[in-house]
Specification:
By secondary structure, the protein is an alpha/beta fold. The protein has two domains: 212 residues, 3-Layer(aba) Sandwich (D-Maltodextrin-Binding Protein, domain 2), CATH 3.40.190.10; 176 residues, D-Maltodextrin-Binding Protein, domain 2 (3-Layer(aba) Sandwich), CATH 3.40.190. The strands form four sheets. A five-stranded mixed sheet has the order 1-3-2-4-12, with helices on both faces. A three-stranded antiparallel sheet has the order 10-7-11, sandwiched between helices. The chain is globular and about 65 Å long. The two termini are 26 Å apart.
């Protein structure tokens, strides 16, 4: 099996597992209601049987532990609300869920979801592609969206991705902040550079790849790897590209994406990484010295620290085992990027327009102490859910992100500037397919199985083959 395909499949599957296992596990009944009034569907629901006198909210399986609790919290804030909610959770990943949403939106009228959640890898279709016409703009719902975006200081990449190009209207926003940071081991930084100060480490690893490789050489001389995998760098390189995968309708390899060939090869040829696959046992093993060579750090959003690194840090307080817990710190990445996220949309002309608008505003734009994002940022949303990065920079600026796993460091001191600097790259309908093919060819070149020119040639041929098959 191809290494990059393994990487992308593992990333998708384990991301879903992380979200469901950490914040709620799904029941298995098929299109029945559970005790929270949430419907399950492993097949598309019978649209003729959907209740039309409630606000219908659709989401995919990984959000089962999140969306119902959001709605319960919202209802408690609105004791005199006379509108009811009908929640539909769809088994499977966001790809299969997307086909259900498409069917309902195309059917239109009262059977379409009033509110629907969309993961980043599907968002193009709904904000910039074929399905964007079904979405109501936040403004037409009655939300003072421009003012509230400014007041909340919503991260630019979130607004960029959620803006429909045909009329420049915001049709989707997120409650999550997934800007990337560098999460590193304090003890290793001290051993190599004599300090674990985030300002110093940030200056060592960037900005720019020349500094990153100087740091990699410092680490290698002391017996460490700078990252676990060359795949750890891809999202930064992809996000830093100045153009999308297409220019004037033709496939285009941005110079910064093409540079990944040389960056990956340099990591491999000089032994600067541990040659693992993201979300593999070996990759997570590098979060707590389970492999032969220790790794300085990982690039990712707050969720990577709170869910993945925490779970694999070896922390077992009942057994008096700390593992790497408390030995982590964060700083700015080599290049700014984001990783995943969920956007929230509403269909045009929902029956309960005022309630739909108020709920969307509470999730994505409310910066008060009772807003969803304030609770997420301060760890009060759920006893089983740690604090998280959020879309609103204003909320993070006034929240306490001091974490024991970071030795008391306030993560928002780093997440705020990272969120301010991260932009939404140009996205296309086929980004996932093209990126998968590109990573595959980069990996073959890195492993010495192809020349650079052959890798580029094969990439172009494979993209044409794949896209022709989809037309």
């Amino acid at each position: 099996m191809k290494r990059p395909i393994v990487f992308l499949l593992l990333a998708s599957l384990i991301m879903a597992f992380i979200l469901t296992s950490c914040i709620g596990s799904p029941e298995s009944n098929n299109l029945g209601q559970n005790d929270r009034g949430e419907n399950k569907a492993s097949d598309p629901p019978n649209l003729s049987e959907i209740e039309t006198d409630k606000v219908r909210i659709w989401f995919y399986q990984a959000l089962e532990g999140t969306v119902p609790e959001m709605i319960e919290k919202y209802k408690k804030l609105k004791p005199f609300l006379d509108t009811e909610f009908d929640l539909y959770s769809f088994e499977g990943n966001s790809d299969s869920y997307s086909s259900y949403v498409d069917t309902a939106l195309q059917a239109g009228g009262s059977v379409a979801p009033d509110i629907y959640f969309v993961e980043y890898n599907q968002i193009y279709k709904y904000t910039k592609g074929d399905a964007t016409g079904y979405a109501a703009s936040y403004k037409e719902l009655g939300i003072d969206v421009d003012r509230l975006i400014d007041e909340a200081k919503i991260s630019k990449y979130i607004v960029d991705i959620g803006t429909r190009p045909t009329d420049n209207q915001v049709v989707a926003l997120s409650y999550e902040g997934t800007a990337g940071i560098f999460i590193y081991r304090r003890s290793i930084a001290k051993d190599v550079w004599g300090t674990d100060d985030p300002v110093v480490v940030q200056d060592k690893i960037g900005p720019g790849w020349d500094r990153f490789f100087d740091a990699a050489e410092d680490l290698k001389s002391k017996g460490y790897a700078i990252v676990s995998s060359h795949f750890d760098l891809w999202r930064q390189i992809d996000a830093s590209a100045d153009s999308g995968w297409f220019k004037d309708g033709d496939l285009y390899i941005d110079p910064k994406r093409e540079a990944f060939l040389d960056i990956s090869k340099k990591l491999e040829d000089n032994g600067y990484h541990n040659d693992t696959i993201l979300f593999s046992e070996e990759w997570t093993g590098d979060m707590w010295d389970n492999n032969e060579r220790q790794v300085l750090g990982f690039f990712g959003p707050a969720w990577l620290l709170s869910y993945v690194i925490f779970s694999h840090s070896g922390y077992k307080p009942d057994a008096n085992q700390m593992g790497s817990f408390g030995d982590w710190a964060v700083c700015q990445p080599t290049e700014n990027f984001f990783w995943d996220g969920n956007w929230v949309l509403a269909r045009k002309d929902p029956k309960y327009k005022k309630t739909v608008a108020d709920l969307l505003e509470w999730m994505t734009l409310d910066i008060s102490d009772t807003g969803l994002q304030y609770e997420l940022a301060n760890g009060t949303f759920s006893k089983d859910r740690p604090m998280e990065g959020v879309a609103s920079i204003a909320v993070m600026e006034r929240s306490d992100g001091s974490l024991d796993i970071l030795g008391g460091q306030n993560i928002f001191d780093v997440l705020v500037p990272a969120s301010e600097a991260t932009r939404g790259k140009e996205i296309s309908k086929y980004d996932d397919i093209i990126s998968d093919i590109w990573i595959g060819q980069v990996d073959k070149y890195t492993q010495g199985k192809k020349t650079k020119s052959q890798a580029i040639k094969d990439f172009k041929a494979l993209v044409k083959e794949q896209l022709d098959a989809l037309e």
